[in-house]
Fold:
Amino acid sequence: MTPETVDILDPDLYLAGAPHDRFEILRREAPVYWHPEPAGRGFWAITRHDDVARISRDPTAFCSGRGLFIEDFAPGDMRDNPDVMIMMDPPRHGRFRALVTKGFTPRVIQRLEAHVRELVTRLIDEACARGGCDFASDVAGRLPLTVILEMLGVPREDQEQMLDWTMRFFGASDPDYRITPEELNTVLHNMNAYAHGLAEERRRSPKDDMLSLLMAAEVDGEKLSYREFGGFFNLLLTAGHDTTKNLITNGMLALIEHPDQRRRLLDDPSLLPTAIEEMLRFSPPVYYFRRSAVRDTEVRGQRIAAGDKVVLWYVSANRDEAVFRDPHTFDVGRTPNEHLSFGVGPHVCLGLALARLEARVAFEELLRRLPDLELAGPVVRLRSNWVSGVKSMPVRCARRAG
Structure:
């Protein structure tokens, strides 16, 4: 296989996990590679760690506001909403990010630990009572969904609707969730309408939650617009749930598939923080995000024209041989570990402290209570070249610790 024949776009390639052999070819032979699109104008695939990091830190040359996904969407498509913070560029991005940063500081997140542990304990109890469960949906999915909905102030009885919306958003290319662009736009419009229904309730009766914080917020002396408020809600809901679900699911799968590393962690629980960073490196929750060239520029001698799509492949950067020793080895004690799974630069993940807390508490309890958790059936991955999702991961509670 040569760079000219390498395809990293086809979602079917990701059904067995990321196609690391293909990314390795590109890192070695064509780290800045023009990749054709069957129904698009093509894009630059950026696969080395230092290039991904440098471009991420340079919003003046590579902007976010022209699209996050490889695909170009038709005008009016809700997936291409410039009022979603993750698609904003400085200085507007900084002003909007400041509105919610106070809700995600390490001090605020740390206060959630006892409640997160209580939730994890309940989920494990329920799984053990049945002798097993679908780990992806019943444990790894339920925990972050419950936490972010409580932070937002969403009633518990609406959880199933929120879950359905997020799965349709992230699974747009999977046959189990696939819907037309028009149907997906309807989903996103419904999410916006739901958010504004809650907003009206907070306007009448403010509470100590994220939506009340956003209701009171102003940017340049003005309240958030309908689209801006809905964009915040959609971003916090989807990013606060699915990425952490992927981290915990893929992390547990890595421990099951690498029993020597699970034993190492059981013997030395102090390794858990480094183990979580290794889980993030080994299986990043998001494979890529896109930037667009603001002006004509060059990367590694390749001329990139203004307007070209530039795709940052975190999944490849995290296996860069120039940065990581034995990059394809899962090592719970790996240090240093400069993975890019949370991004870098202005768009570094807002909820990284929350994700780390949820993962740490989850694995503390899972390793203590279920040290021999094992697969009870095939792992079914999401058909997606964007997120490292697992649809189903049946497990058996082989032994319950006290």
About this structure: The longest helix spans residues 226-257. The mean pLDDT is 92. The chain is about 45% helix and 10% strand.
